[in-house]
Amino acid sequence: MLLMVVSFFNPFAGITGFIAVFFAISLSYFTGLFKPYIKSGIYSYNALIIGIGMGSLFNFNLAFWVLLVIITILSVMLSAIFQNRLGKNGLPFLTLPFVICFWIVLLVTKDFEAINFSFRNIYWLNDVYEIGNQNLVQFVMFMEKIEMPSLLSTFFRALSSLYFQNNIFAGLLIALGILIHSRIVFSLLIVGFFTAYTFNAIVLAYPEGINYYLLGGNFILVSVAIGGFFVIPSRHSYFWAIISVPITFIIAMALGKITGQWKLPVYSMPFCITVLSLMYFFSLKAQKGKIVLTPLQLFSPEKNLYNYLNAKERLLNSNIIRLQLPFIGKWLVSQGYDGTLTHKGDWSKALDFIIVDNELKTYDKFPAQPENFYCFGKPVIAPANGYVQLIEDSVDDNEIGKINQQQNWGNSIVIKHAEGLYTKLSHLRQYSIRVKEGDYVKRGDIIAACGNSGRSPEPHLHFQVQTTPHIGSKTFAYPLSFYISNISGNITVNEFSVPQETELIYNGAPNPTLTNAFDFLPGYNLSVKAEGMEDGKWEVFTDAYNVSYIYCHTTKSMAFFKQTEMAFYFTAYEGEKNTLLYYFYLACYKIYLSTDPEVIATDKFPLQLAKITVIKWLQDFVSPFIIFSRLHYESLNKAVTTDFLNPSITIESKQILQFLSIKKTTNQSVIEINDNQISSFTFQKNNKRIKATCTPKEY
Amino acid sequence: MAKLKYERPIIKKMNAGMMNKFGAQSENTPVTHIDGVSVKSLIEKYGSPVFVLSEQKMRQNYKAAVRAFNTRYPKVQFAWSYKTHYNNAVCNVFHQEGSWAEVVSGFEYRKALGNGVPGSNIIFNGPDKHGDEIRLAIENDSLIHIDHFEELYLLIDICSQLNKKARVAIRVNMDTGIYPMWDRFGFNYENGQAWQALNKIVESGKLLLVGLHSHIGTYMLSTAAYGVAAAKLCDLAVNCKSQLHTQIKYLDLGGGFPSANTLKGAIGLVQTPSVDEFAEVITSTILNYGFKTEELPLLILESGRVLIDDAGYLLGSVLANKKLSDGRKATIMDFGVNIMFTSFWYDHKISPAQEASQFNEETVMYGPLCMNIDIVREAVTLPLLNRGDHVVVHKVGAYNMTQWMQFIAMRPNIVLIDTNSQTHIVRKAETLEYLEQLEVIPEHLQKK
User: Fold this and answer.
1) Which domain holds residue B418?
2) Cβ-Cβ contacts under 8 Å, A328 against chain B
3) Would the pTM count as exceeding 0.95?
4) Which of A1, A328, A363, A407 is the S-S candidate for A373 at Cβ 3.0 to 4.6 Å?
5) What's the mean per-residue pLDDT of chain B?
6) Predicted confidence (pLDDT) per residue in A474-497, tens digit
């Protein structure tokens, strides 16, 4: 808003800018360019700068408008072309069309007699007088005369040059606007400014001080672009921000020498060249892992950073193939990764499982023979969907204490889940394998029985992940997607981790009621009503990339979600923050679809959802370097009735803001599930309490 | 030096007997302690005779049974058979372990509710459910297992009145290749009555068909029979899905698993199958039947005996020794068939409760009743016992404390030894006042 006010400091420029944008958008629609891109303004922002630029340079007459139209058409064409060529490499085209178009304008207008330069910019106070009155003029004059260190005034003037202006007041407003919008950008402005200043002081390129436009439009902007906008902010990005300024500096000087021949300013060309070169360089993974180009532009370095960190933490594993434990019921890990008995060398990343009783015995009666061991003959199930690659079924089960070193792995199944991802189950019972090579097995299908064949002195199940399809392939460390472990009574849920030796573990059983309540299939409609809130008309959609989301027809908001066998979770929300869908997103950020046992699901929100406070601002300033506050989420499913046919379940969830070690609950929700549906949810924050009732809509 | 124990002289016929690995000697190891509590102190504190229950053993048995099933099948639920032992303390041990309740009468149903079992976790079996009990069960969303067509019609009537759908299953009886065939309970599979009942339930529109139940017998020594029963239930379930469009949510295979007692008339050592063996047959039958993994029915077991029989002990004392006319020895105990009903079924193992001589003697063991039928064991080999000596009768946890009689003698204390070896009375010995509480004397017969 502030920034818009600033651009209308020069009302003529503002108007021409607006007209150019309007024309550019109409043209884009007319020529059938990709609509989502048109909406995002990608084809029109260069036209805006051209409009502002031309409006502040020339007097208005017929020739001016004709030229504006022609140049706008050219800028839209160039934008579309650059978008197509550079977009393929994931690069933005920045203000390249503007620079080219504006050079053309400057070069040709000298020969167009009908077009003449305006002197408005020189007598800009007249304009100020026209908008405001005497008071505003006096105020602006006062600002101009304020005694301030030349460094500071240079800084503000440089900022104002972003909008083709040259006054401290506009610069101050821009600085304020930027500070409110983003602390990271603000810090990068300062970084860019000082780097340029220092570099100039060393090389003494401009002894009388750098031209404001070069400083604002190139050196400071390049610092923002590289330090935090096109790159996820981090200490590495700040390092590159500092490097990028002198690079731009020398490019600007060199380019100035060339364009100076035709009396053309360099405009933002040095900025474009540096940013594009650096981004291209980064995309070559020269700095793999240290510099990350912004994957999804949210137009705020804070949001980009927090979303990136959050996604890295939450969703890193969301697309990998999910493996479950290959057995039914509670088993004990008798040997884990890098075990001391046999899990060594190339075969170290394997797991052995057995069944024990309360006294940790593995068998219940004498004589010691395989049949008397708890795990012997118990079903072995497929850990994930896949094709049976290889089976060995005919090896004798050993007597207790004997091992078969000729057929080391005994009876085994290798299942192929994807190219380069196989699981192997070994020491199976002789002739117990129920599948054939080439069969497709589904997660949870019973495929064999636990046995005592191969190098197995007593019955146990050997499980390993491998990248090649052979019996005897070396192991590959790969986590299990979800399991519940009981370590001396302490029950925890584990996601994407590997169980440790002596852990008692089992696959959780999904609760059909919860599974059904959160089974949002495309086309599912929900009508949500709460007092004092706009009604929600929710519908579930799946987009072309197979991403599911709930769309609210009344508030035009969207909440993106994922479902797995054991959990439902939201991945993102877009739209206004005062909608029922937003509260639902906060309430159901992550739900375990199980009630046995009742365990707390924990997760973390991206930090931009935290309320703006002094602490939050401090965090924003240092966020590229250190994260000291977190926004936690917890949910707990409680079975209200144990009716297995139609249980009532309530889910209690809350958001907790953590600052260093201080934790504070910032909001709480209760979701009620009856008749296999979400019947209501209640969101409470401070004194605000919203109870929403949900009714599925049938068609 | 302590005075040596008196040992009366005996004359014993030379008998090599069956050899065991310790020679020809019978094993009569004295049982002086139960779960760390001495028999002597128990009798001193709670009198003789006294029933003693081991909480630890019950929990161990339950966990072992659950483990046998839930490491083979993903959805398993046990329902505690109230008729086996409906003392509230006992029921609550099993409920704490996660067991539902299986009841066969109105008072058992109310007992289960009183024990805090949610209505939806009570299975109501039995051929004699009264209208008011059925009404209560419907209101509590319990699982009602229909036994006959008359009950089915009654249920439809009551549901129409209440305007609420009852959750029902039918009990199915079938030929599983064993004798006797329990065809008096439920609807027969082979003659089509079961299928007819299922059709009527679905057609009525008043009932919610959720399960199928069978209970093929008691103290079953054949695991194969359960395989047959499970297969026939699966067949009905598949037909319900395909023809009646009703998905069966659970299969209840009943109970009937044997404990390690010795049935009367058993010759030599009869190996009773373990819960594991039954679990293997039942679960593999269902798993192989071709249900989709996500549509596998819940498997319910109503085991009673196998979970509690060996957790129950009866401690008693010798009243007298005598010699019978034919020269056999007889020992008279202070407990008899009045409180140990199962002595009609089993040859209970009886151990001396104190150090005894190495010499054994075959004896008839009588109870204290002045009734000829009161025989605890027709022949048992025990060391020489004197009046006041104590014995421990093993594996009496199932049925005795529900089928016992108050006849001639009163019913004694039941003591529970908890997992920390602390003792608790869970049912007090009966008194005359208790006995007379319900008696009403007409006025003309009252003493003046």
Assistant:
1) 33-53+310-430
2) 70-74
3) no
4) A363
5) 91
6) 999 999 999 999 888 888 888 889
